[in-house]
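Moderator note: this is an archived Q&A kept for reference. The question asked for a predicted structure of one protein chain; the sequence and the answer are reproduced below.
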Amino acid sequence: MTGSLEGKRILVTGGTGSLGKTLVRRLLSGEKGLPERITIFSRDEAKQHFMRLEFLQKTVATDEVIYHKAANILDFRIGDVRDYSAVTAALRGMDIVFHAAALKQVPSCEYFPYEAVLTNVGGAQNVVRSIKEHQFPISTVVGISTDKACKPINVMGMTKALQERVFIEANREFPETRFLCVRYGNVIASRGSIVPLFAAQVKNKRPLTVTMPEMTRFLLSLDRAADTVFAVLADGRPGETFVPKVPSANIVDLAKAMMTDGELPIEFTGIRPGEKIHEIMVSEEECFRTRTAGDYYAIQPMLPELREPNDTESALTSEYSSKDDNLPIEQIRTLLEDSQAEISRFAAG
């Protein structure tokens, strides 16, 4: 296995999202080798338009090294992962797929559960079906999952758990392609997450809204999320799910850490539909088939025929939960500094 992307043709479904844009920026940097082609596949033409402008009109010093070539490397396709024919057309000629397309807002999925099924489960199945039926020589598919898929209590987590199983089982039926997944928690500066909300509330001197005082979450930057994708690409075994080893925080402490210009009131609004108090990235049931892979936990597949025969040493003895080992406020502030540019951009928007 190798993490080199030199000369590869890469498809990023849902590539206009927060993670997709970070992945594309990192891919264009050439840090893993410069791809021949990066195709963004999504259904929103406006987001594609603004992403194209953003990536072709950078003004940083590395423009001529990275973004000048982007005019030839970056490609955009309109389409929906629910549409099998559109997925098939997008997959043709690709070497690697990063599957990030999803409905991910927890309350929205609660009110429109079947829509979440169609996108999060049906979309993954369309990718697998198309590769199998057309015998596409795609080496690797990485499915972007979430900690909410572990012991799911909400529709978003349930559909993401099924997405994981769709990809994992595909290794048995079509071993020519390596299907992998990644799980991670709250991405600090992603669209719809708590940190941009707090940043906007702090900027406008408004009370910070927290659902419950006990609430905790894992925290990682967008670049750490992208690192997880690159790590599973380089070192993941067929059917494995990579989970980054990242810190967690109490949400009240996170709110206080963001009050850098004086105290603001905190209002408790009550738990939202489908929301967990604590997030879990590896369950107790998964511990016995979880190995350590550097800065990551690697959950081996549930299907025994896909697991390594003699790899039985467990990396964990209990579930990996955000309720444990929460960061103090000063360390949260330090963590947030690494994503300050992204936080400010979302707050301004």
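Archived answer notes: The mean pLDDT is 90.
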